[in-house]
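We treat protein structure as text, and this decision shapes the records that our systems exchange. Below, we set out a record of this kind in full and without editing:

***
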Amino acid sequence: MIPLASSQERLQLAREIHDGIAQDLVALGYEIDLVIADSYDHGNPAKEIRALRFSIDELIGKVRREMYTLRDQSQKSLQEELLEIATEICGDSLINAQISDFFIPPETAYIIKSIATELLRNSVKHARASEIELTLTNLENRTYLEVRDNGVGGANMESVRLGLKGIKEQIDFLNGALHINSLESGTRIAITL
C-alpha cells in the first residue's frame, strides 16, 4: 500500500480507485460473463474463460480491500502496534519503550514487527526477564531495533531454538545486521536494517 501524507489524500485516492480501476474491472467481469454465456450456446470451451473470470474477481476483491484500508482512519502505525505488542507480551516487565516516529516502508514494517515480537517473547519465556527494554529508532537513515533484558542470558545462533535463526534469515533478506550480546546477567540484541 502507498503511504500518504494526509487522510484527505487517502480518501481522494480511494475515490479515484473506486471510480476508475474498480469500475473498469467490474465492467470487464460482466463482459466476460456474456462471452461465457455465448460460448455455451455455440459449444466453445469456456474453462479458460471461467478461470479468467475468477482471477478478475480476486483482483476486484483486492482493489476493494485496498480502498477500505485507505478509508480506514484508525489504521495504526508500526510504532503504535509495536508498543501495544510489547505491553501485551511483557506486561510489567516492560520498563522502557523508546519508539521514535519515522517512516518505515510497509514491507519492512511487517518484518520488524515479526522480529520484535519474537525477541520480546524470548525475553519473557526463555530468558525469564523481569526488566525488558525496547528501542526502535532511525539511526543514520537506517532502522535500528534493540531489545534488552536482565534475563538468564545464553542467547546465541548455535541454539537449538529456531527463533533466532528465523530472525537472522529475515534480517539477511533485508541486507541488515544482527548483533547479540548475551551474558549471564542479560541479553542485548540489536538489529540494523
About this structure: The first helix runs from residue 7 to 42. The CA atoms of residues 110 and 150 lie 27 Å apart. The first strand starts at residue 94 and ends at 99. Residues 1-5 have pLDDT under 50 and may be disordered.
